[in-house]
Structure formats: structure tokens, C-alpha cells
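dumping this here before i forget
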Amino acid sequence: MPTKVMLIFGTRPEAIKLAPLIQALKTHSEEFVTRVCVTGQHREMLDQVLRAFAINPDCDLAIMQPSQTLCNLTARLLTELDHVLQREAPDWVVVQGDTTTTMAASLAAYYRQIAIAHVEAGLRSYDPWRPFPEETNRRVTAAVATLHLAPTQGARDNLLREGISEHRIRVTGNTGVDVLVQIAAQEYDFSRSPLASLLSPDRRLIVVTSHRRENFGEPLQNICAAVAGLAARYRNDVQIVFSVHLNPHVRGPVHQALSGHANLVMIEPMDYVAFVHLMKRATLIITDSGGIQEEAPVLGVPALVIREVTERPEGVAAGTAQIVGTSPEEIISAARRLLDDETVRSAMADNRWVYGDGHASKRILLALREFECGRAATSSAAAVGQS
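structure:
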């Protein structure tokens, strides 16, 4: 019988990184029955990706409510996902990354003794508050996962240090690179975009994003001060596009702080395909996003990471990313070095394959096949022993 695999996710980054795996599983329908459950943890931004990749969920929990606390979200996820798992009875649950959906789905599957495959396993900052709650989410997931699909050798080493058995870990590369390679290779026409008039070949482009809870409040105010300073200093030859997250803790402060700069535009989150091509045109990216830290090297764009620590040290080690924190002076100084010295910028853009080679989904498919064969063999041996 085919192996029944249920992929559970709730946010835009999870959907992007699981999309190529969903496609790979569905092309092997003789081996795998693929089911997709979305929780709707990030409703609008999730729906963008579902449309872009033609993913039709088999189950949509629509879990998000206004001003929902993490405790309330987690409790509702556990309860609703338990009903789904009881009804669907999958052989495997596949989760991705470090969201509250990932942690809750892993616990719900563990309680029902369902095998769990964790995509993007082993990332660590070793600071439970940076990022919060993601660092704890991924460590809880690691404690109950059956198969740990580590994107890099460094992530594998983290898991080994925590006592995870080597035979349960596979280094696959990052699925985000799989999908990015495909999309970046496509032609994209910005002439019909609202940004068309801004994207002049005579102006360099800075793309900015910020959404981490650790940056809410004063850190975000400092980030905005840095962005405003760059807009003022390079008003004649640099265009800044700030993609503003839908979270009210981000939207309000950013719009309040950054209105009034002719060369700075604040936009709603773009669909993923358009945003990839926007990043592709950038001179540099300023971000606290983990996914963008992985995407920027593939696109050949330096990334300034507006955090104090990162669970993706490979980019820093390779020179494609630089941690600058949230001090306005540090952010501006680092950006100026890249804008004023093309040799420095080119050196940061030189190492593209830090996080994978575009074939992670194939390796994950092989790992699931291998583990399922092993589980079947163990079950058969146990049955023979009992008889």
C-alpha cells in the first residue's frame, strides 16, 4: 500500500519551502498518498503562496483570530490537529521549520504515535529569546521527530551534539533553494507592477523587511531610523522598498516613522514570485528574515541581518551575510560600505550555494522512502517473531 504522508503548515515561509516537496510527492503517487493540512496561522500571506503554487489543501483549519496569544494559538492548534490526525491517520506527518504550527503539529503527531519528519531540522541560535518563540519551537520538534532533515552540515552537527542518533539525520540542503532556483530563472515583467516607475536602472535598490518579535518596539524604531538615514543620504541614486509585514506591531511603527521620503516606498507583502524578482534586482537587502538569509546568496545579493544572533551562521561564515544588530549607526555604516565600495559588495555576493544546490526535495523523498522501508521491515520482523 502507498505511504500516507500529511504535510502540515500555516505560514508563508513554510508553504514556500514545502511546495517543491508537495510537488515531488505527488509525482510519485504510486508510493505516496499526499495530504495537505493548513492551519492558517498567517492567513493572507499564506493564501498568496497557495495560489502561486496551485496548492489545494485537503484541510484548512483557519485557526487565526485577531490579537490571539501564543497560548491560545497553541491550545487551539493541538485540539484541532488532533481531530485531523485521528480522522486522516497518516503514516507520516511532515512539518517545516520553527513556527508554532510546526511545534503543535509535531506534538499532536507524537501523542498519536505517528512518525514525524522535520524539514529544516537542526537550526539553532542557542538563545531561547532570539528568535522567540521559534528557537524553542524547533527544539521541541527535535525532541519528538522521527526523521531530522537537516539543510546543512552545521545543522546536522547541532543535532548530533543534542544526542540525536546519526541514523535519524539526513543532510538534504534547503528546500527554499529548490523553489528559488526555479523562480529566479523565469522572466518577470515589472512594467505592469505598481513598482515599475521606481525600478530605474539608474538607481540602486535596497530591499528591507522586518517581522521578528524580538525587534518589536525600540529595535524596530532603531531600524526605521537607520532606513530613514540611508534614504536621506542617498536620496538621488538609491531607491528603498520596505515590504511591511501585516502584523500591527510592525505596520503602525513603520508607517509612522518612514513617511515623507521621496525615495522610500512602503509596500504590502508581495506575492512570492514578484518578491523574488524584486530581491534579484537589489543592490543589498536589510532583513531579519531567516528565509531571505538563505535566498539572498542564491540571487547574488548581500544581506545585512538586523538581529543580534542568527541560526543560519553558514551565510555569515561564507561572507554572504553580515549581522549588524539594530543600532542605526551599525546598520548605516554596513550599508554605506556596500553602497560606496563595489569591490566589497561584489565579494559578499560571490558565494551562491551556501544553503543547498536545488535538489533538497529529491533527497527528502529518498529519505522518506528509505525510512518507510525500514519501518516496514521492522514491522514484518516483529510479526514473524510473534508468530
